[in-house]
C-alpha cells in the first residue's frame, strides 16, 4: 500500500511540444489531481525559466461545496553542464464554491 502511494505521488504524464507542456499530475500541489500548463519563458545558455499554471477540483464536504485550486509555480534551472541547479517556488490559490 505504501509503495502504491509513492508511485501515485510522483506520477506525471506530459504531452510535449517545443516550448509548452501539458501535464496531468496525481498527488501534486493542486490536490488529488491537477491539469497543468507549463511554458518556457526564458531559454539562455545557463538559465531556463518555466512558469506552470494549473487547475484542480477538491471536494471539501457536503456543507461547503467544492474547492477550486489554481497552482502557480516558477521553475528555474541553472547550469551549463551535465549537473544543474533546479529551483522552484509556487503557490496554490483556492476558492471554495
How would you describe this structure to a colleague?
The protein has 97 residues and is mainly beta. The chain has one domain (2-96). It is 8% helix and 70% strand. It is built from 1 helix and 6 strands, in the order αββββββ. The chain has one helix at 2-9, and strands at residues 12-16, 20-28, 31-43, 47-61, 65-78, 85-96. The chain has a 6-stranded antiparallel beta sheet, with no helix packed on it. The longest helix is centred in the N-terminal third of the chain and has 8 residues, at 2-9. Mean pLDDT is 78; it is low at 1-17.
Question: Biggest β-sheet: count, sense, barrel?
Answer: 6 strands, antiparallel
Strand order of the largest sheet: 1-2-3-4-5-6
Radius of gyration: 16 Å
Task: Give the integer mean of the pLDDT values.
Answer: 78
Category by helix and strand content: mainly beta
Distance between the termini: 33 Å
Helix content: under 10%
Count structural domains. 1
N-to-C order of helices and strands:
HEEEEEE
In terms of per-residue confidence, which ranges show pLDDT below 50 for 5 or more consecutive residues?
1-17
Q: Tally the helices: what do you get?
A: 1
Oligomer: single chain
Strand fraction band? over 45%
What's the shape? elongated
Number of strands: 6
Amino acid at each position: 500500500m505504501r509503495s502504491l502511494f509513492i508511485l501515485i505521488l510522483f506520477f506525471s504524464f506530459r504531452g510535449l511540444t517545443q516550448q509548452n507542456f501539458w501535464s496531468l499530475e496525481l498527488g501534486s500541489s493542486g490536490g488529488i489531481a491537477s491539469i497543468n500548463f507549463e511554458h518556457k519563458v526564458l531559454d539562455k545558455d545557463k538559465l531556463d525559466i518555466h512558469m506552470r499554471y494549473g487547475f484542480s477540483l477538491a471536494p471539501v464536504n457536503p456543507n461547503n461545496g467544492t474547492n477550486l485550486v489554481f497552482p502557480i509555480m516558477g521553475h528555474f534551472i541553472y547550469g551549463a553542464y551535465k549537473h544543474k541547479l533546479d529551483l522552484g517556488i509556487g503557490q496554490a490559490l483556492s476558492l471554495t464554491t
